[in-house]
Structure prediction request, 446 residues.
Amino acid sequence: MKPEALDLQARVDALRPGNASKHLDFFGKLLVDNREMTIWEHDTGLLPVGARIWRRRARDFARRYIRPDAVRADSLPREYDPRPIVSQAARKGFQTLLLALPLGTAFPGSYFLKSASFQVAVVAEEFAAESGGIALLLMAHHLGCAPLILSGHVPTILRHLLPLYARTLRGRPEIMAFAITEPGAGSDVEETEGGAEARLVTTARQVDGGFVINGRKCFISDGAIADKVTLFAKLQGEGLESWTCFLIEKGMEGYSIGRQEHKLGQRASDASELILDDVRVPQRNVVGRLRSGWANNRNVLNYSRPVVGAMALGHARGAFERALEFCRSTVRGGKRLIDYQDVQIELADMIVKLWSARALIWHSCSQFRCYQSASAAAKVAASDISFEVCTKAMEIMGDYGYLENRGAESLWRDSRLTQIYEGTNQINRLAVIEHQWAEISGRCGN
Ligand SMILES: Cc1cc2nc3c(=O)[nH]c(=O)nc-3n(C[C@H](O)[C@H](O)[C@H](O)COP(=O)(O)OP(=O)(O)OC[C@H]3O[C@@H](n4cnc5c(N)ncnc54)[C@H](O)[C@@H]3O)c2cc1C
Prediction:
């Protein structure tokens, strides 16, 4: 290098904020943070202690157990045995995060300061950065458990959730799934106005000692492998307002698994049809009160949408990390891609998007009780951002980005699904408007 170039580099270095701030007074130095650290470390430092611990544990688990399975689970989903990873996750406490210690594994400080889904969302991002399918395989379980808690019905919690968590903590994990979608009702069971006209087939008829259920559910994540399903049915002769949640157990007579879908992404988790043909469900398996299903379902979605947002964020972060590695190791035109300023601007744009998604997700579950519009907004923003970032990562990686399971394409496929399930993003936008309607229509506020 020429001496003038060295001179210029030395002057640039001296001007960098970390060096320049050495000239500040003692108190001036205290007011800025110029430490060099990764964004991951920086953001982890913002978390309450319990969530911080789960974030570190989740990243270690994802790298150690999920990463080695990711390609196999995506390429050969029908041959992939999900039980070992589920057992491993359960043993480490990842499947019992919806209750605080000692009943579950969430840390009480973070649990009561934030919403019950906060620690789940923190974990979801880490899992999804390695594999969308395995992340869904593990996260759908929390969705299945959520109606038991959000029913708020103490006998349900004591009878079903606590024993389930106790068995899981003893190393005998059970997989739960959540079933609202029916062949004629997807969005309509996720949105108020559609709900009023929903064409539901799954019906519960009251009999001595319980109910007999007939009908179909479809697209149920983990449906084929679930030991138990929280399943919603209308009462005979009534509509969606009578929706009631029932706990359906594998092995119940008349209950079977139908078609399993071939999916574009998140393949490690099955999306299955559930068939109910005169299934007799005892009274003790009614989750919460009769006719409380619609309210319970809406609350479950409010708790789980930030988690879906966090999964989307994880896919995007994984794609970004792969693109970054590619830019560091690829030389074009005599220098590394990372040293081109226009590539740096693209990367900065991705960082800004990832950071804004994380900020909104953490914000949306930052209070003990979740808030419909914030949950829906976090899901919409994070999933849209995720698809943009994954697309950009593939673009930066050129041909390599498009290679199956080597570039960013699997995460790109995974991320697309987060714009669709738990309500399409259109339906989630309607959830924002519905909740803020008093403000939007001018009935309240300034
Ligand atoms: C892989 C996968 C996994 C899933 N896992 C589960 C699960 O575990 N449990 C479960 O119960 N469900 C699950 N689902 C179902 C999922 O939540 C629904 O598929 C989703 O909400 C969309 O419903 P739909 O496919 O019936 O779309 P439709 O309701 O048929 O919507 C079709 C289109 O119309 C639009 N639309 C509908 N209504 C309106 C409206 N009022 N205003 C504006 N636009 C509207 C939608 O946005 C969409 O673009 C899963 C789906 C998939 C694909």
